[in-house]
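User: Hi! I'm a student and our assignment asks us to look at how structure tokens line up with a sequence. Could you show me two examples?

Assistant: Happy to help. In each example below, the sequence comes first and the structure tokens follow. Example one:
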Amino acid sequence: MVVLDTDHLSEFDRASVVGAALKDRLRKTEHDVAITIASIEEQLRGWLALIKSRHSDPHGQIAGYTRLQNRFEFYSEWIVLPWTAAAADTFVGLRRQKLRLGTMDLKIASIVLSQNATLLTRNVGDFSKVPGLRIENWL
């Protein structure tokens, strides 16, 4: 199984050449392809912040709500890996190692490790600090 980090997932929003190439490569892979609930959290926080920032302008919120709705439809097409007891245990163990990695990245790594999967990320420098985590950059 390969799991997209948020940076790979975000390429689909940009409708970039890189994103199109990633989609094509994912279609051709023999691996199951998934995302994590932590990546969903990261993306949702951004759209919710946008909506909240325009609280005094209901018409200004339309674009934010539209993007939020589109994202839910987008997520429905993916395997979403959950935050489980195994992921939480892995997270606690990695925290004890005092790795210099952000909380959300550590959560994504913990989910991927608990699933014995490979993380697709552009952030090779940070994720390479996580012992046992298989990483590849498909961008």
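Example two works the same way, sequence first and then tokens:
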Amino acid sequence: MDTPETRYAKTDDGVHIAYQTLGGGPNDVVFLPYVPGMEVAWDEPTLAHVLRRLAEVRRLVLCESRGVGSSDPTALPSPEAWMDDLRVVLDAVDSTNVSFVCHGGGGLFGMLFAATYPERTGALVLVDAYARAAAAEDYPMGLAPEVCDEIVASAERNFGMGGLAGFLAPSRAHDEGFRRLMAHWERTAFSPATISAVTRWSLDFDLRSVLPTIRVPTLVMHHHRHSGMYPVAFSEYLAEHVPGARLKLLPGSDVYYFSDTADEVVDEIEEFITGVPPVRDPDRAFATVLFTDVVNSTPKVNELGDRKWRQLLDQHDRLVARELDRHRGRKVNTTGDGMLATFDGPARAVRCAQAIVETVRPLGIELRAGLHAGEVELRGDDIGGIAVHIGHRVSALAGPSEVLVSRTVTDLVAGSGLQFDERGEHELKGLPGKWAIYAVRS
């Protein structure tokens, strides 16, 4: 197979996203390596061999999100923006079903996409991946703060000098040609400031709450590595918390696509991807739910009367519909003088809630809004499940013109620029435990 040409898909906000495709077939494989750099990947013989083998299994799709590689330079994208970039590429190449083969931090994006778009995801392969890297009180296997700081500092300090060689393929660290290629790869993929920001983000991001909502066949693979970046506990955690996931340990310390065992690993991946049954219509999906409600509506009805109140609600509905359309939300149903909507991106949902609250104020009414992200049950055009109940309970805590969110939402919008103020822990009616609530800062 020839080396593919780089092409570009354009996002709704005018950003050009670089991508390549190779091979054919009814379905696709999206390859998400530890470091982007598809222009250089074909110059490394072992990796190029792996890519061509994957292209024989399914059509291969490579892409680079905004801000990295050959795509337009922008600020570091949020996970939501990354998903939008990939979705635009998949739409551009008429892709309807993909299997992900992810390595390291690339697994964060693969898992989030699989949870959000189960109808477009056939299978998920996670190699040396993790849901969270940094330690937390309820995540003792994570990396200590000082280790995370050193990883970030080292990434910037050694940028462009081939440090990836020793990290990704220790047995080839002293191969001068390989090290030069890795140095070129680093400079092609990132800038010094970007590598620092990307590394810090990948260490701090927390996807644990999403794992139980992944409903696609998942294979977790882990190298017997000496690097502290990827302890086997990370992969064990994924295998334990993604429903039905299977764990497979790989030999050696070199990442498979740089090792002499590459074909054996690709054999495993090929069997896993091609051996799954046809994808059924999903009855569950990961989504962000938004509830809004008019504050003090009863006095307003008494003041205006039924006819004028109905006219006011009609104006309210038109303004809300406009904002939902702008932010790619889907109105599920109305709830008295409020509404329930879903979004495929939490940051977009938060911004839509803010816009709705501000847009209806000139009508002389104030809204409260609440958001939560989680697995929802798909019931035709309606939705149900615990995530919906949580979103409703969160909205009930909001004051006039206030947007409240759950902790899950704040975790998933890291890097989006949104800011929050703590509103303490609350008991939510009918739900166990206490829930941390946050107010969106205007």
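Here is something you could point out in your write-up. The domain at 7-274 is CATH 3.40.50.1820 (Rossmann fold).
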